[in-house]
Write a structure and sequence with these properties.
Length: about 180
């Protein structure tokens, strides 16, 4: 049975158990990241949400899973409109960056910076914006303007934001100030 058929026959919902079963099935059957991305790309919004959440579970444990498909993942990420897809995909990027900052090439890093700055300053849900703070912080040394812009956005938004945003923003500002004082 081909990978797309297997994925389409998985009974996935947003429960943790369901996501774990889907993750284990994908890994046990050696379904490639490219096949998972292709399935997400052709799926309806519901399945996009479900399988990007499953992919998030996979990356949390196996951050190298997407290594051969990073361009396609970024292209997929650029087109997400659904907030759950944005949140999960930004979390995926953060996990990959924390594991290996150098896995992305310069062009990919620039795409990620653009995507995550756009989501940070848009009306994205707070969980997405919090993840964007973390992704942008990890990419802060890719260009001189990033830290300055990130600080400016945080300072503009911090008084208007939810506690989770404020907490992450304060941690990132503290790290940036600590780096500056070294």
């Amino acid at each position: 049975m081909n990978s797309l058929k297997i994925l389409s026959n998985l009974n996935v919902n947003l429960s943790i158990n369901s996501r774990k079963i889907a993750k284990n099935t994908i890994l046990d059957l050696n379904i490639s990241a490219q096949d998972v991305l292709n399935f997400i790309k052709i799926s309806d919004e519901r399945n996009q949400v479900l399988f990007i959440c499953v992919l998030d579970y996979i990356i949390e444990e196996f951050p190298d899973y997407l290594n051969e498909s990073l361009n396609d993942f970024i292209l997929l990420q650029e087109n997400f409109k659904n907030e759950t897809c944005k949140r999960s995909s930004s979390r995926i990027v953060f996990h990959i960056l924390k594991h290996n900052l150098e896995i992305f090439d310069k062009k990919q890093k620039n795409q990620l910076i653009d995507i995550h700055f756009d989501w940070l300053i848009s009306n994205s849900f707070v969980a997405t914006r919090v993840n964007c703070l973390s992704v942008i912080f990890e990419l802060r040394n890719e260009a001189e303007w990033i830290k300055t812009e990130l600080i400016e956005i945080i300072e503009q938004q911090i008084i208007l934001q939810e506690p989770s945003f404020v907490s992450r923003a304060k941690k990132i500002l503290a790290k940036i100030h600590k780096e500056a004082n070294r």
